[in-house]
Amino acid sequence: MENKARVISEYKGAYKVKNENGEYLAKVTGKQMFVASSREDYPAVGDWVIIDELAEWKAVIREILPRKTIIKRKYSGKNDSQIIATNIDVAFIIESVDRDFNLNRFERYFAIAKDGGVKPVIILNKIDLISKEDLAEKLVQMKNRFSETDSILTSIITDEGLDELKTYMKKGGTYCFLGSSGVGKSSLINKLLGENIVKTEDISSYTGKGKHTTTTREMYFLGNGAIVIDNPGMREVGMTNSSAGINSSFDEIDFLAKKCKYSDCKHINEPGCEVLSALKAGNLDQDKYSNYISLKSESEHYEMTELEKREKDKQFGKFVKNAKKEIKKYKY
Hints:
- The chain is α/β, with parallel strands linked by helices.
- Among the domains are: 2-64, CATH 2.40.50.140; 70-230, 3-Layer(aba) Sandwich (Rossmann fold).
- The chain has nine helices and 13 strands.
- The protein has helices at residues 30-35, 103-115, 132-145, 162-168, 185-193, 243-249, 251-257, 274-280, 286-329, and strands spanning 2-11, 14-19, 22-28, 48-53, 58-64, 70-74, 81-86, 90-96, 119-125, 151-153, 174-179, 218-221, 227-230.
- The strands form three sheets. Strands 10-9-8-11-13-12 form a six-stranded mixed β-sheet.
- Helix 3 links the parallel strand 9 (119-125) and strand 10.
């Protein structure tokens, strides 16, 4: 029987998929492996797929349906991308108020979310760990940098912000939690679920000194009908070909860039650069500008390397084609 299902978790060489009949352990076909040209051609958590149901709750994935949205990042040390999740409505970007708090990192996550058509929302977690004065200072920093981004303040100790977070998550919507190790993603999801389903470290790791325990991407279903994807903590958030997402995340700089004297202005030392003029006049935040240049550089490097890789593949294809022609000449 062939029908539609959703990928709810991913393992090495296998997937768990769910439809109205139940959950199945599924694998892709050999043909799919053969025709796949990159990791993006394989299923990912959040994908809608067509499956054949087999006995003993096994299934075969026949087809991946078109993705509405996608969040991906660059693999560490490789010029290849890793899909984090697909068909997401909102990405909750989580940082804790202690040693993890970093405005530049927020912008990295914003860029990969917006590039894939996903709305980013800030969750500032563990707010019980600092004084009201320190918290107010961080909120001012966030407001100055991200005035148009929704934010929710949370604590699993005092339960502050949890009702607001639940209200934000609507029936039928899919939400993913992104952040570094130890920021409290899994603990927040357990609170939303009302039970300890997601494995977490014990309370001693609450301050961020413990290790994260989420090792696979997993989908969970809340009582109000919202769907949540937990992700392993990410040490690095590398840029792929994320130019659109970067421009969207830095719309103030993107607006200025359109007024530059040269259309290919890099905004580093070119004459007639409106971005540099705004920076010099004090109308543009120095840290925001530096992060923009850094993310743009990473994205352009990825795109350039991808072009080189495709050109090499193209040349190799021509070589194979010509070699086959030469072999035919010498056949008796």
